[in-house]
Design goal:
Elements (H helix, E strand, L loop, with lengths): L1 H7 L19 H11 L4 E6 L7 H10 L3 E6 L15 H19 L2 E4 L11 H7 L2 H15 L3 E4 L11 H16 L20 E4 L9 H6 L5 E5 L3 E2 L4 E2 H9 L17 E9 L22 H13 L10 H11 L5 H18 L3 E6 L3 E2 L4 E9 L6 E8 L6 E6 L6 E8 L39 E8 L2 E8 L1 E6 L3 E6 L1 E2 L3 E5 L3 E4 L5 E9 L4 E8 L5 E3 L2 E6 L5 E9 L5 E11 L2 E3 L1 E6 L7 E6 L2 E5 L8 E5 L6 H7 L3 E4 L7 H4 L4 E4 L3 H4 L3 H13 L3 E4 L17 E8 L6 E3 L26 E8 L3 E3 L1 E3 L11 E6 L2 E6 L3 H4 L5 H12 L11
Parallel strand pairs: 1-2, 1-4, 2-3, 4-5, 11-20, 22-32, 33-34, 33-35, 35-36, 36-43
Antiparallel strand pairs: 5-9, 6-9, 7-8, 10-12, 12-15, 13-14, 13-16, 16-17, 18-19, 21-23, 23-27, 24-26, 24-28, 25-27, 28-29, 28-32, 30-31, 37-39, 38-41, 40-42, 42-43
Bound molecules: zinc ion.
Zinc ion binds next to loops.
């Protein structure tokens, strides 16, 4: 083994392809690693709640060192996170984070699974989490994952005994795993699953603990570890030219939208798992103890193992094709094995190895990246045998055709064959889009009914080709999804998945339109053609009380992918009101109401998402005073755009521009979220901001996190931030000072203004302040004490200092009326003498 490892040094492999879309091309080291893995019949399932929760060191170690089949079950797709690389939030962020997990698994060698649980945002307690998720459905999905993947070992990322001390989703993931460990083998539970799979009893359940669970390394060192097993996850892989922790860092650095790009590490590093359930282990016993993870594990496996062990021991790095006879012999034996689970898993692995050993290149590229139902698409096929093996292309079967196309051509060594086929995309409207978004989700759950889809990371590709081959006399079929291959002068060769799109889609320029008075607004709709010669009309669906004209606009687009813009005039009702508008494109009597969203980042494959095209229209009853607002940006929010929507002039003030002269022109200065956490300059500029207040200005500071504040004093008086937050967006609000001007001028604020909020009330409220501050509101989550720090106002000199943890940055993009009315009052504080700028 050691000798072999040394000789592997000759083969430098790069396991990370820069173009995530490119098909995997195996070199000799990778084929050898795949053979090693083929000879291990053991599996590990790692369970946590979110994309980026997973410990890639341990996943990579299990996959690359232990060679176990390893998967990460992330209960959610991370819709509730923040996006540091682009504008996508919510469902679309979940799509990106799903792909980032798949990218991470391509690096660390794991597989990826999910449940239907929706990441609804921060949750303080697993009880709340399991109430918002449908606990029984998520538990059913964890059981389904266990019954399908059939892990020997389950490892929880989080501690099921830590309720209330970490994110509720985290603890809930561990609690559900504990329950599912017992239920998966109970044939009386989730019986409908058993029509598709079998019960399964994992051998052991562990918790992946760490020193930080105990506060410090010192505390952890003192701990009795008799119930724990540790591994050195810093092992070096000569075949990869990398240490395990380097592989792990590359994997977790795929979580770019969460800002997880990080430095790699090398060298010895201990990882601990604590035994929780199952068959007990002796100290330092193997985690698989009691399970034969060799081919002897399955009936009929012994003969297969004998052949494949020889391939592994005598692996020919110069000519892996020399192993084809043995690999094909093993393949034939494997087809007669009774154990369906291992037969399926190992057949897939073995086919990949056979394909790689024979240097087969099979590719199907469409001449266009996408097409609509009923369209014709030309496919280019490339078939190449780069070995001396006797390979015959018997036929190929297109997923769009019922019968295969017979070829019977011998693939002469290194003689490329090209075929062209024209296919017609079926008319079944089976569009390419994430399956979990096909139906409207609830706050806590995706709505997926097809049990076979539940848990899959992506929608299975609808258009593919099966190449039916005869390799050295053994029939073998290899499936390739249709892709689109193209090049760009500044990027080189690129790949995209081939996608099926509607013949027409439509989008509205903004997701929310605020009508701050009864004036009409022009709203632009973009119609995009999914095929040539689109002719029809577009009309708007709109809420009662509103008006839209003209009733219809003609649409005529000659070329696929071209767009046409049409403008509708929207007239709001007289009084406060809100609803949704949807463009409906009618082509040949059929309505199309979806928007086509494209997600294009270099680290993940191109994604197309179809979502109902709709925008919120809000008629506000709002009064405003003052006109010119200065905005100091923090970690990024859309508050400036939202304030412009209600008629303010908003000027972004760069930190270096903060000076007494520059501030005097503004009616109010607003500081963006987390500015005091990230903007270094505020340390030096705070005195000018306070001076501005002293001279009569209004300063409104939005939330900052309690840790890592760049200045000593946020306020002119004592003000201490805490981690107090109210995560229930419907939590009751108590108005503490009903007569305070800020709650009365120019808009009278009532409990109605706290209706329809999204995600949360607010976060990082101060919990200590000096007597100069007046708290205006109180609120709390279920079972907690009243929190009064959501909105604090203090007079300072002639002006007002206002600190608020209310999450305006979330409410504005959702078009929440009350949030606009309250913010208008903050901006208007002490402006009673100034005229309204409204017409
Ligand atoms: Zn998490």
């Amino acid at each position: 083994m050691y000798q072999l490892r040394l000789c592997l040094l000759l083969f430098i492999s790069s396991i990370v392809s820069l173009q995530a879309q490119q098909p995997k091309k195996y070199n000799s080291s990778e084929i050898y690693e795949a053979v090693q893995k083929l000879n291990v019949l053991g599996s590990v399932l790692y369970i946590a709640a979110h994309p980026d929760d997973e410990n890639t060191r341990l996943i990579s170690y299990m996959s690359n060192e232990v060679k176990a089949r390893t998967a990460y079950l992330s209960l959610t797709r991370g819709d509730g996170g923040q996006n540091l690389i682009g504008p996508e939030i919510r469902e679309l962020l979940g799509v990106i984070r799903t792909q980032e997990l798949l990218a991470a698994r391509r690096v660390d060698g794991g597989e990826q699974r999910f449940t239907r649980a929706n990441d609804f945002g921060y949750s303080k307690h697993p009880d709340e989490t399991l109430e918002i998720w449908n606990k029984d459905d998520v538990l059913s999905d964890v059981v389904w994952a266990i019954r399908e993947f059939k892990p020997d070992i389950i490892i929880n990322r989080f501690d099921h005994r830590r309720a209330g001390r970490t994110h509720g989703h985290h603890t809930a993931s561990a609690m559900l795993s504990m329950e599912a460990f017992d239920l998966a083998n109970d044939a009386s539970k989730y019986t409908s699953q058993l029509e598709l799979t079998q019960t399964w009893q994992p051998k052991r359940l562990f918790y992946n603990t760490s020193w930080w669970r105990y506060g410090s390394q010192k505390e952890f060192d003192k701990l009795d570890k008799s119930n724990m097993i540790n591994f050195d996850v810093g092992v070096y892989y000569p075949s990869k030219g990398m240490s395990n922790n380097e592989v792990a860092a590359l994997a977790s650095s795929q979580h770019l939208c969460q800002g997880f790009g990080r430095l790699s590490q090398r060298g010895s590093q201990q990882e601990y798992i604590e035994f929780l359930k199952g068959e007990p282990l002796q100290k330092n016993e193997d985690i698989f103890s009691g399970i034969d993870v060799s081919w002897n594990r399955i009936e009929g496996g012994k003969a297969i193992g004998k052949i494949l062990k020889l391939v592994e021991t005598h692996f020919n790095f110069k000519n892996p094709a020399s192993h084809l006879p043995q690999l094909l012999e093993a393949y034939k034996l494997l087809q007669n094995v009774k154990d369906e689970h291992w037969k399926t898993v190992k057949t897939k692995e073995l086919k990949t190895i056979i394909e790689a050993c024979s240097g087969l290149y099979l590719e199907v590229s469409a001449k266009t990246p996408n097409a609509a139902p009923n369209s014709n698409v030309t496919l280019d096929m490339e078939v190449l045998n780069r070995s001396n093996a006797n390979i015959n292309l018997v036929s190929y079967s297109l997923s769009t055709l019922e019968r295969g196309i017979t070829k019977n051509i011998t693939l002469a060594s290194n003689q490329k064959l090209n075929f062209e086929e024209s296919i017609t995309i079926s008319n079944n409207k089976n569009y390419t889009t994430p399956y979990w978004l096909n139906k409207k989700s609830s706050l806590g759950m995706y709505n997926v009914e097809n049990q076979n889809l539940i848990g899959l990371p992506e929608t299975p590709r609808a258009v593919f080709v099966d190449f039916n081959l005869m390799i050295e006399g053994t029939p073998l079929s290899i499936r390739k999804p249709v892709i689109y291959r193209y090049s760009k002068p500044d990027k080189g060769e690129l790949y995209r998945p081939f996608e099926i799109i509607p013949i027409v889609s439509a989008s509205i320029s903004d997701k929310v339109f605020i009508f701050e008075n009864d004036q009409q607004k022009e709203i632009e709709v973009t119609v995009k053609a999914g095929k040539n010669n689109i002719e029809g009309y577009v009309q708007m669906a709109y809420p009662k009380g509103w008006n839209v004209y003209p009733e219809k606009q003609k649409v005529e687009i000659a070329n696929k992918d071209d767009i046409q813009k049409v403008v509708f005039t929207v007239i709001p009702p007289k009084n406060q009101n809100e609803g949704l508008i949807t463009p409906m494109v009618n082509i040949d009597g059929e309505f199309y109401t979806d928007e086509l969203i494209e997600i294009d980042y270099a680290h993940i494959p191109f994604q197309t998402v179809l979502m109902p095209s709709e925008s919120k229209v809000v008629r506000l009853n709002i009064e405003t005073r003052g006109k010119n607002i200065g905005y100091i940006e923090g970690a990024g929010d859309v508050v400036p755009e939202s304030l412009r929507q209600i008629g303010y002039n908003v000027t972004i003030i760069e930190p270096e521009q903060i000076s007494p002269e520059n501030l005097t022109n503004f009616d109010a200065i607003v500081v963006g979220i987390r500015a005091y956490n990230i903007v270094e300059d505020l340390k030096f500029k705070q005195k000018f901001l306070l001076e501005y207040v002293k001279e009569g200005g209004n300063l409104i500071i939005q939330y900052n996190t309690s840790r890592g504040i760049k200045i000593d004093n946020l306020a002119p008086y004592n003000l201490k931030l805490s981690r107090d937050r109210v995560t229930d967006e419907n939590a009751a609000i108590q108005i503490l000072e009903p007569n305070h001007p800020i709650l009365n001028f120019p808009n009278k604020i009532t409990s109605k203004d706290f209706e329809g909020w999204v995600q949360e009330r607010g976060l990082y409220f101060p919990n200590e302040w000096s007597k100069e501050f007046t708290p205006l509101l109180a609120s709390n989550d279920k079972g907690e004490s009243s929190k009064k720090g959501a909105l604090l106002v203090a007079k300072y000199g002639k002006g007002n200092y206002i600190y608020t943890g209310l999450s305006f940055f979330r409410e504005f993009p959702a078009g929440v009326s009350g949030a606009f009315r309250i913010f208008a009052n903050l901006l208007s504080a002490e402006k009673a003498d100034k005229p309204s700028f409204k017409n």
